[in-house]
Amino acid sequence: MISTEQVELIKGKYEALKAEFDERSRRLWSAVEANSFGYGGVVAVAEATGLAESTIRLGQQELKAQVGSARTIQERRIRRQGGGRKS
After folding, report:
1. How far, in Å, are 44, 63, 70 from residue 67 at the CA level?
2. CA–CA separation, 83 and 63 (whole Å)
3. Is the pTM of this model over 0.90?
4. How many CB atoms lie within 10 A of CB 52?
5. For residue 49, how far is the Cα from the chain centroid?
6. Where are the domains of the chain?
């Protein structure tokens, strides 16, 4: 079980950085933070940040996929090409 003090610590870090995050970096940061706490980390980070547990778990999957792989420019995109509003 993660203590209330630790949840508040995560919340403070998140509040300090959230303006700089895009969708992908938010997922990856939350996954790293959850991994650092081990068992119960996903729930603690979700509670502290308001992110869905599924979002954090997706970030964990992305981290596992990244290890040892060189990403292409296309893979670094936040959204797929062609997404968004049409002019």
Report:
1. 24, 7, 9
2. 24
3. no
4. 11
5. 10
6. 4-76
Residue 43 token pair: 């729930």
Contact 55, 30 (CB under 8 A): yes
Q: Which two tokens stand for residue 59?
A: 């970030």
pLDDT tens, N- to C-terminus, the chain (87 residues): 788 899 999 999 999 999 999 888 999 999 999 999 999 999 999 999 999 999 999 999 988 887 766 665 456 666 666 766 776
| Residue from 45, 66, 65, 67 nearest 56 by CA | 45
From 33, 44, 32, select the one nearest 2 (Cα to Cα).
44
From residue 66, how far is each of 12, 22, 36, 69, 86 by CA, in Å? 27, 18, 17, 5, 31
Asked if 28 and 59 count as a contact pair (C-beta separation under 8 A), the reply is yes
